[in-house]
Design brief:
It is a single chain. By secondary structure, this protein is mainly alpha-helical. The protein is 85% helix and 0% strand. Helix 3 packs antiparallel against helix 4 and helix 15 packs antiparallel against helix 16. It is globular and about 60 Å long. It starts with a helix and ends with a helix.
Length: 446
């Protein structure tokens, strides 16, 4: 299969054809997140709070899996663009093997740390039991989840976005269907509560992996899995991890952010912790959509960079940025117009809805400008500049927002935490734009 369309097809149609399947996939994934939380919220507010506390661990799991997958994706796309097919094959083979190893290590880690992690934030026995039960089950599926994410990035490196879309959608749909059946005991299923929610999530992940494997063996692809000792050579692994480790840290930072903000908000009341958890569920619908655009352009950027088509890389960036800005602006309008209704999906408590409405209307003020830093980070990863991407993420999730949230909460109460979001996004966007203009575009001229 010839990937030359990556440097020959007009930029806008290329970006749309690569991004739209991923945007659709992200929308379905976001819908799953919301539906899954909706059903859990029907169990009780304590169950929803428990899953909000577990959420940082799930972000950490996802960040390690996806971050490593991005490293595989960037390296494979680069070698395809440079017409080094054997090295590209070794890249994806090493990626699948190492993802299984990572999955095993992280399974053990999550099983050991879940309970003490939850006890940091709550002493409520009911919430603790819900959280531990959900954690122990959902994290037993870590190995197939890690391997499935790596397969996703392998297909994306080839430009096979529709395959990723199909697999992700099938897994999410299975999850959505199983949620009410297993949580509430419909048909042949017993009523399992949070156990059912965890099992539905894990089964959906396994189904996605099976779809990838079936398509891989039935459809001829340019990238081939060939497990051999040479695939783990030092230079190849260094290239994968030089992007994969910063990308993983990038994606793990929200986990640290949520953990820190939970600690700040818990001083005021558990309702604020619940609202923060609800917000991060809702924002996935917006940010994962923008992330779909970024996922679509990452292999295009890597391929054209490998082919030394630098002007085209800049055109791809600007096109993706316009699309991301449109998505984030739409998200802002929705949050401003329907904040109360959105929070009401997860709770019928009037006080919680009031708190959530205020939070959503303030936080969404930073959505549109954040498109700049999100898009710049994606391009940097496609270029193999993982460290620079990490700098941007550190600004968004640690360096600015956590100190700002702490200080503003002392001055204005819990509402100060919500203002820290848009302040952080604005400052990071300005820094990201400067970084791209002064550092990255300069490399295209050398």
């Amino acid at each position: 299969m010839n990937q030359s369309f990556m440097k020959e097809k007009p930029v806008l149609p290329l970006v749309l054809s690569m991004s739209m399947p991923m945007v659709l996939s992200m929308l379905v994934t976001s819908l799953y997140n919301i539906v899954d939380s909706y059903f859990v919220a029907r169990i009780s507010e304590e169950a929803m709070t428990a899953l909000s506390l577990v959420y940082p661990l799930q972000i950490l799991e996802n960040s390690i899996a996806v971050g490593f997958g991005i490293g595989v994706n960037a390296a494979a796309a680069y070698y395809l663009g440079a017409e080094r097919s054997e090295t590209a094959n070794d890249t994806v083979s090493a990626g699948v093997f190492l993802s299984a190893v990572h999955g095993l290590v992280m399974t053990l880690f999550f099983v050991v740390t879940a309970s003490p992690f939850l006890k940091i934030f709550t002493g409520d026995i009911t919430i603790l039991e819900y959280g531990k039960t959900y954690s122990y089950i959902v994290f037993t599926f870590t190995i197939p989840y890690f391997i499935g994410i790596t397969f996703e990035k392998i297909f994306q490196a080839e430009g096979q976005m529709v395959v990723s879309m199909v697999s992700m959608i099938i897994g999410c749909v299975v999850n959505i269907i199983l949620d009410p059946l297993m949580i509430f005991g419909v048909g042949p299923f017993p009523r399992m509560g949070v156990v059912g929610a965890a099992l539905a999530t894990g089964i959906g992940q396994v189904i996605s992996l099976l779809v990838y494997i079936i398509i891989y063996f039935r459809k001829p692809l340019p990238l081939k899995l060939r497990f051999r000792r040479e695939m783990l050579n030092k230079n190849l692994c260094k290239r994968i991890y030089s992007v994969g480790i910063p990308a993983s840290i990038n994606m793990a930072l929200p986990s640290l952010l949520i953990t820190a903000l939970n600690g700040i908000l818990a001083v005021f009341s558990a309702a604020y912790v619940l609202v923060l958890g609800i917000y991060f569920k809702l924002q996935t619908f917006i940010y994962l959509t923008a992330n779909g655009i970024v996922q679509g352009i990452r292999p295009i950027v890597g391929y054209n960079y490998g082919a030394k088509e630098y002007r085209r890389v800049d055109m791809v960036f600007k096109t993706a940025l316009r699309l991301a800005l449109a998505v984030m602006l739409a998200g802002t309008m929705i949050c401003l117009a329907a904040s109360s209704a959105l929070i009401g999906i997860f709770t019928d408590n009037a006080d919680t809805i009031r708190i959530g409405q205020t939070a959503l209307r303030i936080i969404c003020l930073g959505f549109t400008v954040s498109a700049i830093s999100v898009t710049v980070s994606g391009v940097l990863e496609g270029l193999g500049q993982g460290k620079l991407s990490l700098v941007i993420s550190l600004m968004r999730y640690i360096i600015i927002i956590i100190p700002a949230a702490f200080l503003l909460s002392r001055l204005f109460g819990a509402v100060g935490v919500w203002h820290a979001f848009w302040i952080s996004e604005l400052i990071t966007a300005l820094a990201s734009w400067f970084l791209y203009q002064r550092k990255i575009k300069r490399t295209f001229k050398t």
